[in-house]
Write a structure and sequence with these properties.
Strand content: 15-25%
CATH class of the largest domain: Mainly Alpha
Number of strands: 4
Order of helices and strands: HHHHHHEHEEEH
Largest sheet: 4 strands, mixed
Strand order of the largest sheet: 2-1-3-4
Number of domains: 2
Structural class: alpha+beta
Helix content: 55-70%
Distance between the termini: 38 Å
Radius of gyration: 20 Å
Number of helices: 8
Oligomer: single chain
Length: 176
């Protein structure tokens, strides 16, 4: 994670926390990232020296007219400081800060099939306790090569209870 993105995310998080709009800012940042991912030309345009900073500000104001003013101001600041390429990293860092403040964390759960809501809740409860979080925001990733079981990744923690992992362990034991 970029130190620059972390500093901007920290500052934005403090502001949003003071105004009690962390969830709104987080939602707007997620939308901003979706726009950037679906139209990468926008980031290129906002980073391009061909357009004046004033013109870039107008473009941002037009496209994100309904967004929170703190999000718009942060994006404008990134444009002015020629750091607009840090936008996605800033949004990711902000998401982590928001989750920590709410006592939750993001988790990726790899499985061979789509998990039911009940299974996600069960995993959230069980693994949330292991990492000291009340709730996990689960993203389910389908990976047929696991053969069975699940692999849970929460930050730097990886809990691997898959058939593929167990077979690999057995192979190491037998082969030496």
């Amino acid at each position: 994670m970029s130190q620059v993105a972390k500093r901007y995310a920290d500052a934005l998080f403090l502001l949003a926390g003071e105004k009690q709009i962390v969830a709104d800012v987080n939602a707007d940042l997620e939308e901003l990232v979706k726009v950037i991912e679906t139209t990468p030309e926008l980031l290129s345009l906002l980073d391009s020296p061909k357009f004046s900073i004033e013109r870039k500000k107008q473009i941002v104001a037009e496209i994100f007219a309904n967004a929170n003013e703190f999000v718009i101001n942060t994006l404008v600041l990134l444009i002015e400081k020629k750091r607009v390429n840090e936008t996605k990293a800033l949004a990711q860092e902000f998401k982590v800060l928001a989750a920590e403040a709410q006592g939750s964390a993001d988790a990726k759960v790899y499985s061979t099939r789509e998990l039911t809501d009940a299974e996600k809740d069960e995993i959230s409860t069980a693994f949330g306790k292991l990492v000291g979080k009340g709730k996990l925001n689960i993203t389910n990733v389908i990976e047929p090569s696991l053969l069975g079981g699940v692999r849970v990744q929460i930050g730097n923690y990886i809990f691997d209870n898959t058939v593929a992992n167990k077979l690999e362990g057995l192979k190491r034991t037998l082969v030496g």
